[in-house]
Give the backbone structure.
Amino acid sequence: MADKYGAPAVNGVHKSVVESSVATNSEDLRRKKRIKYLTYGVAFVVFQTIVIVILSLTIMKVKGPKFRVRSATVENLNVGSSNSPSFSGRFNYQFGVKNINFGQYKYDSATVTFAYRGTNVGEAIVSKSKANMLSNKKINLSTELSLPSTTSSEWSSDLSSGVLPLTATSSSLNGKVTLMFILKKKKSTQMNCTMHLVLATQSIQNIKCK
């Protein structure tokens, strides 16, 4: 039974305030959840962007391989005189195809040409093969190098010094780098090396490659 101060009305107002407060708290919770999910979403997108940038600058960046002479030995070397400018012998070379990519490099065959002061003295054929990722493919080859004669005016001075300068250049070594087993990018390289044939020790020294 209501008294003259309207107690039932007060109870009704109190109930309305409580319901309003509950609704406000519920809306605040929903808003906080939306902000939290949005924060997570933005953080995930930023993380993905950073990962993609890192991959594009490191793993996914394809660089050309290096094709070089690693070492060489000489057998049965015969050298002429100042009046008979010539030499011949068997040369055992180790070439290297250095693949610095995060993917396998498959290459086609190429020809390596050896020369003494611009005169060709022999060739070697590098067969098609592959170099695994982050590895140095070693290729062992033997070839006969021969200089029947030369018109170089420097033969006598080279013979006197006991050192014959040789060069090793190649045709283009063409191939493809495979990334993630599906992405393929073409890359090619060439050999451009110089070396000294030391007559006293019948050895190849001072190998330098660009």
